[in-house]
Write a structure and sequence with these properties.
It is a single chain. The protein is mainly β. The N terminus is likely disordered. The protein is globular and about 65 Å long. Strands 5-6-12-7-11-10 form a six-stranded mixed barrel. Strands 1-2-3-24 form a four-stranded antiparallel sheet, with no helix packed on it. The protein has a four-stranded mixed sheet with strand order 16-17-20-30. A hairpin with a 2-residue loop joins strand 16 and strand 17. The longest helix has 19 residues. The chain starts with a strand and ends with a strand.
Length: 467
């Protein structure tokens, strides 16, 4: 049996070592990874891997908002795992209710009904990744939380006192200093297109377009719908970019300067930038750790040979999310026995979600197979709703089975063994209450994978090992 093992040593450019074992012709795949990779706490930033290799695109560095690569260093407010999971589940229930066809009410553990408003937005409390762009003329740097589950980009704007806005590290955007700023008139087509996100008659006292976003977390940013120049990189400017100029945040959070919306609706950057830069195509690569960078790239890469593609689904009554159709899951190279009907509600990709959630039957199969493959390691008590956690005390390295997701069209994606399967020693998946709910692929499982969203061609691509 030993002679049938193929051992390949992979030395990654950011310094960690992984040992990949493929067991003969059976295709069993495992990776030996250092336990330190599950609890990264880098003190310095490495950018050796986190760059877009395609020179024909506009690219913006992307970093974990609390890591050393963050564009603006802040006093650390790192959430505990339990608190992060609580916020992440709150967002999960909100997003799932928006996208699922099911009419059942989702309830939290204490049976309180989760409120799901119709306004634009999701829940920015759990989001992890930021980019820095320039707003106005001259361009003023703004560090924004990137979110594929939100449509509207917004920043905090002057005037806004400390009782109405949270403290941010960069100065608030001052519209009066920008030569290209203008508020959107209340009776304009752009304002009417925001109908789902406006409160009351949608007008300010000056007859400008007003917006109010209700997030699943309970946050309610309000302000003036506006337009100005958005600078993505030197020479890459989106003129007359529509965004929210926020004057009141309720409640206030210590976070970045606002939200960069990358959802599917016309208000998002993905579509607003399409005329001049992207052609309706963009991609994200989330870094493996807080001490490394990824990228947000606008435009189609000049070479897609490294990608596998799956169709992008569109449900007429829920058009804002990026929804895909899974067809299978494999653990250590072995396909799991999951009936195709289990995936009938599909999954969405969401950069603002941390942990992935699967239909109940799919998760039960994944959990059982993963536990079998990890049987040599002692289980630890559950953390929040993560019920497959391990005690790696005394282990310098652990052998992790490859977890692969397969989507319609045959696109199979191997999750990154070091950063994309376990979070703080827990399997980074959990299960819905049933199979009638839509699943979500969160940010942990997307780490190091370039996810290419090609809206004109109706497809999503994956390229592993991209950052």
């Amino acid at each position: 049996m030993v002679s049938s093992l193929l051992l390949t040593l992979l030395v990654c450019s950011y310094g960690s070592i992984a040992l990949v074992l493929a067991a003969g012709h059976h295709g069993h795949k495992f990776t030996v990874v250092p336990t330190a990779s599950f609890h990264s706490s880098e003190a310095s930033c490495s950018t050796t891997r986190g760059t877009d290799p395609h020179s024909n695109r506009v690219s913006v560095p992307l970093a974990h908002r609390n890591g050393p690569c963050a564009p603006v260093q802040t006093t650390k407010h790192e959430l505990s795992l339990a608190e992060m999971l609580r916020r992440d589940r709150e967002r999960t229930e909100h997003v799932t209710r928006r996208v699922s066809k099911s009419k059942r009410r989702l309830q939290s553990d204490d049976d309180a009904v989760v409120s799901v408003p119709a306004q634009l937005g999701s829940s920015y409390n759990s989001q992890m990744y930021v980019v820095t762009v320039g707003l106005g003329t001259p361009a003023v740097p703004q560090t924004l939380i990137m979110d594929t589950g939100s449509e509207l980009t917004w920043v905090q704007c002057k005037p806004c006192n400390s009782t109405d806005c949270y403290t941010q590290r960069l100065p608030l955007f001052d519209p009066s200093t920008s030569s290209t700023y203008s508020p959107v008139p209340c009776d304009s087509p752009e304002c009417r297109a925001l109908a789902a996100g406006i409160d009351g008659d949608g007008c300010t006292d000056n007859w400008d377009c007003a917006y109010k976003i209700r997030y699943g977390s309970g946050a309610v940013p309000t302000g003036t719908y506006s337009r100005d120049a958005l600078t993505l990189a030197p020479g890459a400017v989106v003129d007359s970019f529509l965004f929210g100029c926020g004057h009141h945040q309720d409640p206030k959070f210590d976070m970045a300067d606002g939200i960069l919306g990358l959802g599917r609706l016309p208000q998002s950057l993905a579509w607003q930038a399409s005329a001049s830069h992207t052609g309706g195509v963009f991609s994200l690569c989330l870094p493996p750790t807080g001490g490394s960078t990824g990228f947000l790239a606008l435009g189609a890469p000049n070479d897609t040979s490294g990608f596998v593609f799956t169709p992008l689904l569109t449900i007429d009554e829920q058009p804002w999310f990026y929804q895909l159709m899974p067809t299978g899951i494999s653990v250590a190279g072995e396909p799991l026995d999951i009936p195709p009907a289990v995936f009938r509600e599909g999954v969405i990709t969401d950069s603002g979600m941390v942990i992935s959630v699967l239909q109940a039957t799919a998760y039960a199969a994944l959990r059982a197979a993963f536990r079998r493959a990890m049987a040599e390691y002692p289980l630890a008590p559950p953390v929040g709703h993560l019920d497959t956690c391990y005690n790696f005390t005394g282990y310098d390295n652990v052998t992790v089975p490859t977890v692969s997701l397969t989507f319609r069209g045959g696109a199979t994606v191997d999750l990154d063994a070091e950063s994309g399967v376990l979070l703080d020693g827990c399997l980074a998946f959990w299960g819905q209450r049933g199979d009638e709910y839509t699943g979500i692929i969160g940010s942990v499982n997307q780490r190091t994978i370039e996810v290419l969203y090609d809206m004109p061609r109706g497809k999503v691509g994956f390229r592993t090992g991209a950052c």
